[in-house]
Amino acid sequence: FDSSGAVQIGRDLASALERAPSLDDAERSLLRAAVDYFLIIEDAQHDLTAEHGFDDDRRVVQAVLRAIGDA
User: Fold this and answer.
1) How far, in Å, CA of 65 to CA of 49, rounded?
2) Looking at residue 71, what is its pLDDT?
3) What digits encode the pLDDT tens for the residues 58-67?
């Protein structure tokens, strides 16, 4: 699996979480959903066994970051 991709997703989420107090309830809910999705190993593409297992996680996180104005 691509650990560097996972690390970057984690960094992106950590950065977004730093500004969570300034987000409204809907934005915080979206961010929480992105974090939850990232933590699920067996999601749309199994993170550890699929060739590009973190691609779906990256797409979810990028969409949420755009939605909350953090991308």
Assistant:
1) 26
2) 60
3) 999 999 999 9
Please tell me what DSSP assigns to residue 67: H
| In contact, 1 and 54? CB cutoff 8 Å | yes
Torsion of CA 32, 34, 38, 39, to 10 degrees: 20
Residues belonging to the chain: 71
pTM of the full structure: 0.91
- Distance from C-alpha of 68 to C-alpha of 18, rounded to nearest angstrom: 13
* Closest by Cα among 18, 15, 10 to 38: 10
Give me the residue label for tokens 């190993």: 41
DSSP letters spanning 2-66: -HHHHHHHHHHHHHHHHTGGGS-HHHHHHHHHHHHHHH-SSSSS-TTTSTTTTHHHHHHHHHHHH
